[in-house]
Design goal:
The structure holds two protein chains of two kinds.
Chain A lengths: L4 H13 L6 E5 L4 E3 L7 E7 L2 E6 L5 E7 L4 E2 L13 E4 L3 E7 H10 L3 H97 L5 H16 L5 H14 L5 H9 L2 H13 L3 H40 L8 E4 H11 L1 H4 L3 E5 L5 E4 L1 H19 L4 E8 L3 E7 L34 H11 L3 E6 L5 E8 L10
Parallel strand pairs in A: 10-12
Antiparallel strand pairs in A: 1-8, 2-7, 3-6, 3-8, 4-5, 4-7, 9-11, 12-13, 13-15, 14-15
Helix pairs in contact in A: 2-3, 3-8, 4-8, 5-6, 8-9, 9-11, 11-12
Chain B lengths: L3 E6 L3 H11 L8 E4 L2 H15 L1 E8 L7 H10 L7 E6 L4 H10 L2 E6 L4 H19 L12 H10 L7
Parallel strand pairs in B: 1-2, 1-3, 3-4, 4-5
Classes of the chains: A alpha+beta, B alpha/beta.
Chain lengths: ~500, ~160
């Protein structure tokens, strides 16, 4: 609400001409501070020319513009009746002039001087109305801003939740990729003993049937039992040794077919000598037939032994799997890290086959932890080492205990980590793998997950380059209470 | 007549024994040699098989300690003395990539998954040995009882009679 300059000028002239108003004409320059927030002001001013900006300080001392005073409006209006310290700071935005009167004079004249109110009243009212309007507008603006802020907050919350969900999904995907590798490994590890189990079982029936197709005499039973016993005890020979023995036997028994020579090569040389002497000394038909049966019994023994070995293998894998998959065990338990390490090495044995694996875990590594999660750490470190080494190399898993901590180190003979990337490799999504090779499965979260699990256990996962010998990842975890360090 | 060898490469002794046992019927004509690693297999090829005869069929495990089976088969394919040998990959687990590599670079003739069916294994080896013999041998009579007799007799029938020579 602005007052026409002409009438304002008339009011100014009228007020200035009345000595009882004690008014003074004051010029101000742009930038001048006309009122200080918190200071007492004993004058009220009517702006004649120029513009003044009002500022209010917030709790932290920052100034905010809260309005302006234009010609026809009063400066110090809020203090008019109360006389309190100034609520605002007033700073001239432009050069200008104002007509100032002492506050008590102004009040006195307002009530007592006829004609003063008629002159000043409309200005005061207009001024108050315009300020009130501004307050109402501000209320509306505040309400609007609050609504916008609430919407923004909700959006932010949603984005945060989405981010969290995405992160969990990625971790889940990484776990599934690891699980996929675990399943592939299990298939491989179990398929081998299953193959030998199935093939031995298949061979066993016909072998027994063939053996029993001919009558057995009582005096032969002892010899046959001996053959079976030898077969049951027999340890498979290295292929090289077997080849050598087969060659020797082929020279000695040129008439025997190779499958029989192969079986004979498996027989302990001393036992074979005794038996060969028995047959060769008196090569009767009966003795030859008995020798054949002895060999058949020996073969049956080796088949039964194969069954047992395969069953033990499968049993061992299942035990490792049970130990490994304690993922749901959220409770802290005191564990020897070597158990989880061994289980993990067994289950991922198919991946490690092309490498030399050195395991040096001489002392118990007791910590309080969640075994399933720690197995995830070993898995990720092993997979990482395998990927780093490619086709060939040596994987060394070592560990030790100190007074209040235990450590496990997984060291590869890959190319090592470029010094500039030593810390970055623990970042989520950082991967040196080719992104277009889905066979590699992972998302580059493996080391990030490993580090976060170790840190949740109060430990540290670090990496160093071993000069000339790849990278070494070291996990340090607080030792379980009551663990005594190894002596010596 | 120089012997045609079957070479079995497998690192698990019990599994190797089972493969050799399943292939024993061929041994009346085709001596079987075995090895536990690619390095040993290579030695057997050069020190035992090639000095005495030729390599007819290789049955090789995929995952071996150290050098893997595919890489060994690829190497055999590159050596002219062993290139004609028929290559069979026996695997408990293999990524598609490894199989493709074996097919393309090692002229892989067959791919068998563990646990295998012994009849299938024998049929595959019989077919590959028959192919090998048909390609490389002129006197086919000794193989009639062990290999695919109908294919061998077909070839024999097409051969000129001794009188025609």
């Amino acid at each position: 609400m602005s007052i026409p300059i002409r009438s304002l000028e008339r009011i100014r002239e009228a007020l200035a001409s009345m000595p009882e108003t004690e008014s003074t004409d004051r010029a101000f320059a742009a930038g001048a501070v006309l009122l200080h927030e918190g200071e007492r002001a004993d004058r009220i001013g009517l702006v004649i020319q120029g513009e003044i900006e009002l500022y209010k300080r917030d709790a932290e001392g920052r100034e905010h513009p809260v309005g302006s005073v234009r010609p026809g409006q009063f400066l110090g209006l809020l203090l008019l009746s109360s006389g309190e310290p100034s609520f605002l700071t007033a700073r001239a935005r432009t050069d200008g002039r104002l007509l100032e009167m002492p506050r008590p004079t102004f009040l006195r004249l307002l009530y007592n001087l006829p004609g003063f109110y008629q002159m000043v009243g409309p200005l005061l009212l207009g001024n108050l109305v315009s300020r009130y309007r501004r307050v109402v507008q501000l209320h509306l603006r505040v309400a609007e801003l609050s609504r916008a802020l609430a919407a923004e907050k909700a959006q932010l919350q949603a984005a945060l939740e989405q981010l969290e969900a995405t992160r969990n999904r990625l971790i889940q995907q990484e776990k599934m990729a690891t699980l996929g590798q675990l399943v592939a490994g299990l298939a491989h590890e179990i398929n081998n003993p299953v193959a030998s189990l199935a093939r031995a079982a298949d061979a066993l029936g016909p072998a027994l049937l063939g053996l029993l197709a001919r009558p057995v005499e009582a005096r032969e039973l002892e010899v046959l039992r001996e053959g079976l016993q030898q077969g049951l005890q027999h340890q498979p020979l290295q292929t090289e040794v077997q080849r050598e023995r087969m060659d020797q036997l082929a020279v000695r028994f040129p008439d025997l077919p190779r499958p029989v020579l192969r079986t004979l090569a498996q027989v302990e040389p001393a036992v074979l000598e005794t038996f060969a002497y028995y047959v060769v000394a008196h090569p009767t038909v009966e003795r030859k037939a008995l020798a054949r049966r002895w060999v058949e019994m020996f073969e049956i023994g080796t088949l039964v032994r194969s069954l047992r070995v395969a069953a033990e293998r499968i049993g061992g894998i299942v035990r490792s799997l049970k130990g490994y998959s304690r993922q749901d065990q959220a409770e802290l338990a005191e564990v020897d890290l070597r158990d989880g390490l061994r289980d993990t090495l067994v289950l991922f044995g198919y991946l490690l086959k092309r490498f030399q694996v050195v395991v040096d875990l001489p002392v118990p590594l007791r910590v309080r932890g969640r075994p399933g999660e720690l197995n995830q750490v070993w898995t990720n470190l092993l997979l990482n080492a395998c990927e780093a080494m490619g086709e060939r190399g040596t994987l060394t898993v070592s560990g030790g205990a100190e007074s209040d901590a235990v450590w496990v180190r997984v060291q590869d003979t890959g190319p090592g980590v470029p010094p500039t990337l030593l810390e970055r490799i623990f970042e989520s999504g950082f991967s040196t793998k080719k992104p277009d090779d889905p066979a590699q499965g992972g998302l580059g979260l493996g080391l990030a997950i490993a580090r976060s699990i170790v840190e949740q256990h109060g430990g540290r996962l670090t990496v160093q380059n071993v000069p000339g010998s790849g990278a070494a990842f070291t996990v340090r975890l607080p030792a379980a209470a009551g663990t005594t360090p190894p002596s010596g | 007549m120089s012997p045609i060898y079957i070479l079995c490469v497998e690192d698990e002794p019990e599994v190797l024994a089972a493969v050799v046992r399943d292939l024993a019927p061929f041994e009346v004509r085709f001596p079987i040699e075995s090895a536990a690693t690619a390095a040993e297999a290579r030695r057997v090829v050069h020190e035992v098989i090639l000095p005495r005869g030729q390599l007819g069929v290789v049955v090789c495990d995929h995952l071996l300690p150290g050098e893997d089976g595919v890489s060994f088969l690829v190497a055999l394919q590159r050596d002219p003395r062993t290139a004609p040998a028929r290559k069979i990959l026996l695997t408990a687990q293999a990524g598609l990539a490894a199989t493709v590599q074996a097919l393309n670079q090692a002229q892989l003739k067959h791919y068998l998954a563990k646990p295998w069916d012994p009849e299938e294994l024998r049929a595959v080896v019989r077919r590959q040995l028959t192919d090998f013999v048909l390609e490389r041998e002129t006197d086919l009579f000794p193989y009639l009882t062990v290999l695919e007799a109908d294919r061998l007799t077909e070839k024999i029938r097409q051969q000129p009679l001794p009188a025609d020579r």
